[in-house]
From TrEMBL, chain A:
<dbReference type="GO" id="GO:0051015">
    <property type="term" value="F:actin filament binding"/>
</dbReference>
<comment type="function">
    <text>F-actin-capping proteins bind in a Ca(2+)-independent manner to the fast growing ends of actin filaments (barbed end) thereby blocking the exchange of subunits at these ends. Unlike other capping proteins (such as gelsolin and severin), these proteins do not sever actin filaments.</text>
</comment>
<dbReference type="GO" id="GO:0030863">
    <property type="term" value="C:cortical cytoskeleton"/>
</dbReference>
<dbReference type="GO" id="GO:0051016">
    <property type="term" value="P:barbed-end actin filament capping"/>
</dbReference>
<dbReference type="Pfam" id="PF01267">
    <property type="entry name" value="F-actin_cap_A"/>
</dbReference>
<keyword id="KW-0009">Actin-binding</keyword>
<dbReference type="InterPro" id="IPR002189">
    <property type="entry name" value="CapZ_alpha"/>
</dbReference>
<comment type="similarity">
    <text>Belongs to the F-actin-capping protein alpha subunit family.</text>
</comment>
<comment type="subunit">
    <text>Heterodimer of an alpha and a beta subunit.</text>
</comment>
UniProtKB/TrEMBL annotation, chain B:
<comment type="function">
    <text>F-actin-capping proteins bind in a Ca(2+)-independent manner to the fast growing ends of actin filaments (barbed end) thereby blocking the exchange of subunits at these ends. Unlike other capping proteins (such as gelsolin and severin), these proteins do not sever actin filaments.</text>
</comment>
<protein>
    <recommendedName>
        <fullName>F-actin-capping protein subunit beta</fullName>
    </recommendedName>
</protein>
<keyword id="KW-0206">Cytoskeleton</keyword>
<dbReference type="GO" id="GO:0051015">
    <property type="term" value="F:actin filament binding"/>
</dbReference>
<keyword id="KW-0009">Actin-binding</keyword>
<dbReference type="GO" id="GO:0051016">
    <property type="term" value="P:barbed-end actin filament capping"/>
</dbReference>
<dbReference type="Pfam" id="PF01115">
    <property type="entry name" value="F_actin_cap_B"/>
</dbReference>
<dbReference type="GO" id="GO:0000902">
    <property type="term" value="P:cell morphogenesis"/>
</dbReference>
<comment type="similarity">
    <text>Belongs to the F-actin-capping protein beta subunit family.</text>
</comment>
Length: 284, 275
């Protein structure tokens, strides 16, 4: 094996590790992790293809919000192409900078579209923006609506996300839900993550799936959109309420079962008494 | 020094990844820096493993009772799997170790009502000695929790000034996991956490060094009890609760965002009027 071939295999090994580490990094900290990975590997910088690909995958999995001057886009596996992302509503392809989360350029493109489905899409977008404004953190939040197919056989894809990123105070969180619906069925996946690392390191990873029967009437787009987004918000509210209950019961069902705050006697251990008693027993 | 920087970068990354995946995460990073892998492994806290001797008696496996791929049991003072030329505590220290395990077992019973504890001692070159007091507790399928685990790693360094003063320096780490596999309201829910604290105390030995061994066990035990209780309380009331706060400021429950805005609006008005 010559020098060139050896380097390739080493790089493949690095690539595997980089992908794994960046994939499991909480959203908001990927750039810092990549900087540290470069220091560890040496002779590599964050613009290396391995790093950029890992960052891109990370952003797509977390529905990263990319901002432009007067537009924005969520990057997802769904609208991802080789070098750009597809914005179905505005008939554009968009190039992004994954490190800075900025739009680099936009180009017009001709995309297949259906006027009835467009109408439903626009109504859904309106309802989703309303939902975002009512219940999500303004700083980083966004939603997308896309569809495939035609009026006789369609699938709509929705994405909703909000992020909290507060690195100076050592915490981050993400709420990421992706939904799809056909004429009769709504399905969704939710991921909730939180990370607090001031001195310690605590991470929450919570995953849930939803499925509900619906009936979409394309001729009543506004009403249909309201119902669909209402169903989504109802399911997400129920989930969050469940989280609230779980956290309230945690001191009793988890911590106490793990280690009591005090022995059942109500007082701390009497070391003097116990040490003498137990060591005396040993001698017997 | 290059190795220090690389290890620091590894530790920085590990702090951003789930603590109970520490073994896997550390192994992945160690594969990038194979020359410094050993050094990295010694700096990490991970959930404690449990081993068995030939009679089925359990003991905790850790960095502090490891020699190569074998681990020494606090019960039998033997390595499993057996090895030649292994490291053992001195005879005097082994006597202390046996007593400490008996007492620590009672502490474990009082606070953990189950679980496994092990104490390991080792001699140090500066004439002092050190000890690790370890606890592993599992909680299985109770009240909706699918599984949960607690590992506490208390490492105490003991030094004397040669006269009658003894100094105990403790570093305690707790690694915790709570796992719910399927809950009808929240689905799959997993929280993992780790927290570390250090403390140092000095004491005058009893007159004539009477019952010095018991003295050490009492002092070490008291420190362990204090720091473990503190960490448990912090994890319960601060750290785990913080993850809830983070989620609830990312998505607000119905009506709350509006309520907060109203309140902020009123506060603004108040400031303007009377500020």
């Amino acid at each position: 094996m010559n020098q060139g071939e050896e380097e390739v295999t080493e790089l493949q090994q690095y690539e595997k590790v980089v992908k794994y580490i960046v994939k499991n990094t909480p959203f908001g900290q990927a750039n810092l992790v990549i900087k540290d990975l470069c220091k560890i590997i040496g002779n590599i910088n964050p613009q290396h293809p391995i790093m950029l690909q890992a960052l891109r995958d990370h952003n797509e999995e977390h529905l990263a919000l990319i901002k432009g001057q007067n537009t924005q886009i969520l990057t997802s596996v769904l609208n991802s192409q080789e070098d750009f992302y597809v914005d179905q509503k505005n008939n554009e392809t968009i190039q992004v900078d994954h490190e800075k989360l900025e739009i680099i350029s936009r180009s017009q493109v001709e995309l297949p579209s259906d006027p009835e489905l467009n109408t439903l899409r626009d109504a859904l977008e309106q309802q989703l923006n309303l939902y975002l404004s009512q219940q999500f953190n303004d700083k980083v939040c966004g939603a997308y609506v896309m569809y495939q197919g035609d009026v006789s056989d369609f699938t709509f894809y929705l994405g909703i996300t909000a992020k909290t990123i507060n690195l100076p105070n050592f915490f981050c969180g993400s709420w990421i839900s992706t939904w799809e619906f056909t004429k009769t069925q709504l399905k969704g996946d939710l991921r909730v993550q939180a990370h607090y690392y001031e001195d310690g390191n605590v991470q929450l990873k919570n995953v849930n799936t939803f499925s509900e029967g619906i009936n979409v009437d394309l001729s009543a787009a506004s009403e249909s959109a309201k119902q669909i987004v209402h169903t989504i918000s109802k399911l997400e509210n129920k989930h969050q309420s469940g989280m609230d209950n779980l956290y309230n019961s945690m001191p009793d069902i988890f911590f106490k079962a793990m280690r009591r705050p005090l022995p059942i006697t109500g007082t701390k251990m009497n070391w003097n008494e116990n040490v003498h008693k137990l060591v005396a027993n040993l001698k017997q | 020094m290059e190795s220090k920087e690389k290890i620091l970068s590894c530790l920085n990354i590990l702090k951003r990844l789930p603590p109970t995946q520490m073994q896997k995460n550390a192994a992945a990073l160690a594969s990038l820096i194979p020359d410094y892998a050993e050094e990295l492994y010694q700096k990490i806290d991970k959930p404690l493993d449990i081993g068995q001797d030939e009679k089925g008696n359990q003991f905790i496996q850790s960095e502090f009772n490891r020699d190569g791929d074998s681990f020494r049991s606090h019960v039998t003072n033997q390595y499993y799997p057996p090895i030649d030329d292994a490291v053992y505590p001195s005879e005097a220290l082994r006597k202390l170790e046996i007593k400490a395990n008996a007492v620590f077992d009672e502490y474990k019973r009082l606070y953990y009502e189950g679980g496994l504890s092990s104490c390991y001692f080792w001699d140090k070159e500066d004439g002092g000695f050190a000890t690790a007091w370890l606890i592993r507790k599992n909680v299985e399928k109770s009240k909706g929790i699918e599984d949960g685990s607690w590992s506490s790693i208390n490492v105490i360094d003991i030094k004397t000034d040669g006269k009658s003063k003894w100094t105990y320096k403790i570093t305690t780490s707790v690694v915790l996991e709570m796992n719910i596999v399927q809950n009808q309201d929240v689905g799959k829910f997993n929280i993992t956490g780790t927290l570390t604290k250090q403390k140092e105390e000095s004491y005058e030995a009893p007159a004539g060094n009477k019952d010095l061994e018991l003295f050490h066990i009492m002092k070490i035990g008291t420190l362990v009890e204090d720091v473990e209780s503190y960490l448990r309380s912090q994890l319960d009331s601060v750290y785990f609760g913080k993850t809830k706060d983070i989620v609830f400021q990312t998505r607000f429950i119905e009506g709350e965002k509006n309520f907060i805005k109203q309140r902020q609006g009123l506060a603004g008005e108040f400031k303007q009027k009377y500020g």
